User: Fold these one by one.
Assistant:
Number 1:
Amino acid sequence: MEAIAFYVLAVVSVVAALMVVVSRNPVHSVLFLILTFFTAAGLFVLLGAEFLAMLVVVVYVGAVAVLFLFVVMMLDVDFASLREGFVRYLPIGGIAALVLAVEMILVSTAVAERGAASHVHAVVATGLSNTETIGWVLYTNYAYYFEAAGMVLLVAMIGAIVLTLRHKPGIKRQNIAAQTARTPATGMAIIKGVKIGEGIAE
Amino acid sequence: MTFEGALSIALPELILSIGALALLALGAFLGNKSTRLIASGAGLVLVVAAAAAVLGPRGAAFHGGFVQDAAAVYSKVVIYLISAVGILLGEPWLKRVKNSRFEYPVLILLAALGMGMMASAGDLISSYIGVELQSLALYVMAAFQRDDSKASEAGLKYFILGALSSGILLYGASLIYGFAGSTRFVDISAAVHAGAGTGVIFGVVFLMCGIAFKASAAPFHMWTPDVYEGAPTPVVAFMTAAPKMAALVLFARVLENGFPGAVKQWSQVLIAIAIISMVWGAFAGLAQKNLKRLWAYSSIANVGYALVGLSTGTQEGVQSMLVFMTLYLIDVTGFFACLTALSRDGRPMEKFEDMAGLMKERPGIALCMTAFALSGLGLPPFSGFWGKVYVFKAAADANLGWLAALGLLSSVVAAFYYLRLIKTMWFDPPAGRTDAAPMDARGVAFAAAAFSFPVVLPALALLDPLSRAAASAFGLN
C-alpha cells in the first residue's frame, strides 16, 4: 500500500514538474507547480515528516505559489518571447542538467552503498510527534538561529521599504484630530446679504 | 552552559542587534532629519561592539553554533572598525546627493552583525544565516540610489546571482548534513576524520563555491565588476572591505574546523580558485577603463592571494591570510575614499581619462592614490608588499613555492594597470578643474594612505603577534 502511494505520488510529482516547464500557458505552469508542491507534501507524509508536509502546503502552496499566480496574472510579461530562446539554450541547459543528473546518481549510489548519516543522535526523546520535537528544540537549542533568522527578515523588510516607499509631496492625508476639533466657528462662514443671481465669491 | 553565559559570550552581536533595533526605532520616529544622529550612534555601537569583543569572555555558546575565539575576536575588530569607516564615508556622501536616509547606517550595522556571525560560525546553520544577513543588507545598499538605473541594475544583478550562490551553498550544506550526520563543525570533523567520502566531498565543493561567490573569487566573480560600477562609490568602499574579510574567515572556519581530515581534497580546490582569481584578476584588469571596474578586478586578484595563504592548511597560512586581508582592507577603503572625494562639475570621476593630470590639480589625493596603487602593486615598503610577503612565505613553507611564484608573476602583470594609473595622474595634461574635495572622504583617504606607508611598519609589529594568536585558535600546526 505504501509502495503504491509512493509510486503514484512520485510519478505525479515528476510529471507535474515537467509540465511546469513545458506548458504554454504560464497560469497552467503555476497550477502544475502547486500540484508538484502537494505531491511533495504527500511524500513527506510517507517519510513520517507530517509537520514538514503541512509547512510545504501552508508556505509553498498557500503563500509562494499564490504569489506567483498573482505575479503571472498582473505583470504583462510576454512569455512567448521568453520561450523563443528555448531551443537556442537547449544544448547548454541540457549539459548542465546532465551534469546535475550524474552528480545526483553518484550521490545516491554513495548513499545506497554506505548509508547517509550513520550516527544521527536524536536531540530529544523518541515517542514524540515531530511537531512536538521541533517545538522542543526550536526555542532552546536553536534559539540563536531562530533569533538570527528574525534579523534576516527584518533586513528584508527594511530593504523593501527603503527601495520602494516614496513620500509624494502634495498628497492630502486625513487628519482625524483636526476633523474632530472642528467647530461651527472654524468650519462655517456665514455670509449675509447675498443678492439674488450674483452668488458669492470664493 | 547557562543562557546568561551564552549571551555574555555573544555580547558583541547582542550589542549590534539591540543597537540596530533601537536606532531603527529612533529613526522611524525622528525621520530622515535625524540621519546624522543615527549615523553617529551606529558608529558608536560598532566601536563599542569591537571593544566588547576584545574584553568579553571567550568560548563556544548556543551548543557550538557560536564560537568566540581569538580568530573571531581579531576578525570582528577589523570588520566592525572598517564598517564604522563605511558609515563615515557613506552618510555625508548620501547627504551630498540628497538621498540622506536613516536606514543606511542601520543596514551597515545589520550587515556587520551578519559578518560577525560568519566570523564566529561554529555550525552550518549559523554560517548560512550570517551569510544571508550580510548579503541581504548589501543588496539593498547596492541599489540605495534607487532613481539611478545603473544602481538598480547593480542591486538586481547582485541579488539574483547572490540568491543563486546561496542556493549552491545550501545544497552543499544539506549534502554535508546528510553524510556527516550533523551541522556542527566539531561533529562534522569527527565524522570525516578518517577521510571524506564522495558525498561529503560533493557537499564541501558546493559549499566552497557558495562562499567563493561571496568573497568574489574567480570563477565566481562575474557579478563583481558590474556591481561595483553601478553601486554608489561609498557603498563599494564598504562592499570591497569587510564582507571579503568575513567570507575568508568563514572559509577558514568551515574548512579548518569542519574538515581538517580532508585537507588534501579541499586544498586543491582552493588552489585552483586562487590561481584562477590571481591570473584572471590581473589579465582582465588590463582592459578596463573605469577605475571602479579596475579595482573590482584588483580585488578579485587580491582574494586570490589571500586564498593562497588559506590553501596551505597550516597555521602560518591562516595567519598570512588574516594579515594580508587586514592590510588590503585599509588600502581598498582608502582608494574608494579617494574616488568618493573626487568629482568634476558634480559628476563622479571614475574613468582613467578623468584622472589625467590630477597631480597638478589635487596633489594630496593624487599622492594618496599613488600610494594605494603602489601598495596594490606590492612595492616595498608599502603595506601591500608586507601582506604579499606573509602569503608567499606561508606558501613556500608549505611546499607550494610554485604557487607563490605564480602569484608573483600575476602581480607583475597587474603592475601594468597600477602603473598606468600613476602615469595618467602624474604626467598626462590636466583634464580640467575638480570640485572641492569633502573633508570626510579626504580624511579617510589621508589616514589610509598614512597607514599604507609609514604607519604600517609599527602596526605590523602589533598585528603579527595578534594574528598569530588568532590563527592558533584553529588548532593547526
Number 2:
Amino acid sequence: MKWFDPTRFFNITYDDLLFRLVVDSLLVLSLLASGLVILAILLRIRNDRIQRTRQQLEAAWRPLLMEVLTGERLLADLQQRIAPKHRFFFLEFVYRFARRVQGQDFHTLCLLARPFLPHIRDELKKSTPEERARRLQILGLLGFEDYRDEIIAALDDPSPLVAIVAFRQLARPDRPEHAPLLVQKLPRVRRFSHEMLASLLAGMGTSVLPPLREALCDPARPAWIRAIAADVLARLNDATAGPLAAQALRNAGLSSELATALLRLLGAVGTPEMLSVIASYLEHPEEAVRAEAVRALGQIGGPESVPLLLKALDDPSPWVAFFAATGLQQTGQNELLRQIAESEHPRHDLVRQVLAEERLAV
Amino acid sequence: MKEAFLAFLAVFHMIVLVYYVVLNGYYLVTSLFAFWALRRHARREASIDIDDLIATAGAPAVTLIVPAYNESATIEEASRSLLSLQYPEYEILIVNDGSTDNTLEVLRRAYRLVPTPRYPMARIPTAHVRGVYQSRTHPNLWVIDKENGKRADAINAGINYCRTPLLCIVDADGILERDALIRIVRPFLEDDRTIATGGIIRIVNGCVVRDGVVQEVRMPRNILAKFQVLEYLRAFLAGRVGWDALKIMLLISGAFGMFRRSLVVAVGGLAHDSIGEDLELTVRLHRYCRERGMPYAIHFVPDPVAWTEVPETIATLGRQRDRWHRGLIDTMRRHIRVLLNPRYGRIGLVAFPYFFFLEMLGPVIEFTGYIVFALVLALGIAQLPFVLLFLAVTILFGTVLSFAAVGLEELSFRRYPRIRDLLELFLLAILENLGYRQIHTYFRFRGIISYLRGQTGWGHMERKGFRKA
C-alpha cells in the first residue's frame, strides 16, 4: 500500500483539505492583519486624544493649583471643578506635585486631595496588584493619617509588590512606631533586594534598633533576617550591637551571608577585644567572608591587627589583599606600605593603587 | 527515478511547511505573552516611582564596561551620554582594545586622562594591558588601554578592573537614555535572585542627537536601516518580552546588559574565542546556576533604552549577520548537552531547541526552500495557484507578526511620535518580504558556510557618527 503519493501532493485541487486549509488561512490572516492595522491606528488616535485631554486638564488645573497654594483661591473652588471621571487623574496630578514640596504646601495638597481619596480606597481590594500598589502609593503620600490601617493591612496583601509599597510607606523616619511591625513583616518582602530593605529600615533611624537587636540575637530567626538586622545596625553604628555580633560569630556553622553581615557590623562598631573573634574568620573558605573579616580588622585597627593584615596581603583573593592594604593604611602603616609598593612583593601594584587613592582623597 | 525525485520534493515541502508552522506558531505564542507582559509592565511601571528607586540608598553601585575598537567617530558623544546618567553611584571603564585609529587620543583630549594605578580584582586571562588612565575632569571615568584581543577579551579586561557588585556591558557606539541604568537595575532590587538583565536596543540612525542625548526620535532615511527598525521591534518587543514572560531568556544583548560581577567572574568571564559572546555568556550563566541548583533569574526589561547605529549598506549588514550567525552556531555547539536536556528545565526543553532548530538551522531550510520552490515552479511540477497561495500564507503570517510587534510598540512605548512613522512601519512589514527577508536569510546561510570554513573574523563596521541637532 502506498502511504504517500507525491504526484498527488503537487496536484492539489480546491477539493483537497490542504488547499482549503491554505485558502482559509489566507483569509483569516488577511482579516487579522487588517484588524491589527486598524487597532493600532485606533490605539494611536485614542492615546493621542487621552494625552491631549490630560495636557489640557493639567494646563487648566496648574494655575488654579498655584492660586490655592498661594492662598488666593479656596480649596473648594478647585475641588468643584474636578469631574468624577477625572478624579484619579487629578490625584495623580496632585501626587506629582506633593512629591516635590514640603511643609504648608504639602499639607494644602493633602487637604485638596482628601475628598477624592475614599474613591481609590474602595479600589484597593478589587484592582490588579499593580493598580492596588499605585493607589496605595497615592493614599500613603496624600492621606497617610486617614488610611494608616489600610496601609498596614496591605503588608499582608497577596502580592509582594503591594506589600513592598506599603513597607516603603511605613518605613519612614517620621513613622518610628511601625519599626517592630516592619521587622516582623520582613518575610512578606523577602524576594526584594536585601540591601534595599536594609537601606529602608536604616532610614527609620534609631527607632528600629531594639527590634533588630532582638532579631540579631535570636538564632531561631532565618539567617537572612539576621543578616539584614546586622546590616542595618552597622549602617546606624549601633555600639550596643557589637558584643551581640561578636557573640553570634562565636557560633560555628553560620551562613556566609550572615557571617559577612556580622563582620561588617563589627567593622563599624567593634572594639579591639573582638579581634580574636574576627581573626577566626581569616581562614574561612568563602572569599567574601575573609574579605569582610580583613576589612573589619583594618577598621578596628590597633597594633595587634597589623601582623594579621600583613599576612592577609598574601591571600590569593585580590579583594582580601585590597582590604588588607586599605586596613594597613587606615592603621597608619603608610611607611610600611610605601616599602611594599617599591619592593618585589606580589601585591606591590595593589599597594601602589591604595596609596594613590589616598593621595586622590587628600 | 522521477517518482523518487517527486517524493523528495514533496517531503522537503512538508518539512518547509512544518518549519513555518512551528516557527510562526512559536512567534505567535511569544507575541501573545509579550502583549500580556507589556500591559503588566506598564502598570507596574506606574506602581513604583522611578524617583523612589533612584532615591533608595540600597541601589547597588554599577560599573559600565565599554569595549571600544576604532570608535573615534562616536566615542566622545557616547561617553558623554554615559557621564550624564541618572544613578546614585557608578563608574565607567572604557576599554580601548588596541584601536588603530585615534580613539585613545580622542578620549585623552576630551577628558584629560592621566595614568593612574589600578589593580585588577579578578584574573580572567586577557591580552596585555598597556595602561590605565583616569579622567581629571570626571573621576568616575577610567580608560583601560590594552592590546587588541577582540570584544570579549576587552570586556574581560573591564571585568578584571571592576569593583562594584554589578557590571553593565554597553557598546561604544551606543547612547543610553538618562534613566536607563536605574531601569535596568530595577529587577535586581525587586528580585534578589536576579543575576542578569537586558535592556532594549533601539536604532539611532535618523534620530537627532545633541550632547549625547537623543533629542528627537525619527525613522531612518536609509531603507536598510528602516527595515532594521522593524526587525529590532519584533526581536525585542515581541521576542524578548515574550521570552521573559515565559522565563526562557537565553540571550542578554552584549550591547546593553547588566550582570552580577561575582557570577560573571565565577564562570570565567566571556569566552574570549567566541564570536557570539553575549549569547554564550547567558547560556553559561544558566548552566552554572542550574548545575549547582542555585536559585536565579535572568530578566529582560523593555524600557531601559540603548540607542545604537545599524549598518546602512548591504555589505556591512551582511558581515554583521554572518558574524551573528557564526556566533549562534558556535554557542549551540559548545553547549549542545543543554539541547532537550530536562536537567536544564525550560532552557533545555524550550529556549535552546528554539535557537538550535529554528534560528540556527532555519536559514538552511529557508534558503533551500526558496531554491526548491523555484525549481518546482520552473519544472511545472506543482500547480501555480497553490504555490502562490502557499507563498502568500507564509508571507502574510510573517507580516501579521510584524504588525503585532508594531502594535505592541504602539501599546507600550510609542517612541515614534508621528502617525506617518506608524504607517511606514506597517508598510515596511509588507515590503520586507520582497527582498529584505531573502537577503537576510542568505546572510545567515552564508554564516553557516563561513562557520564551516572556520572563519572567526568580526568584519569591519562603518560608523557614520550621530546626527547632530
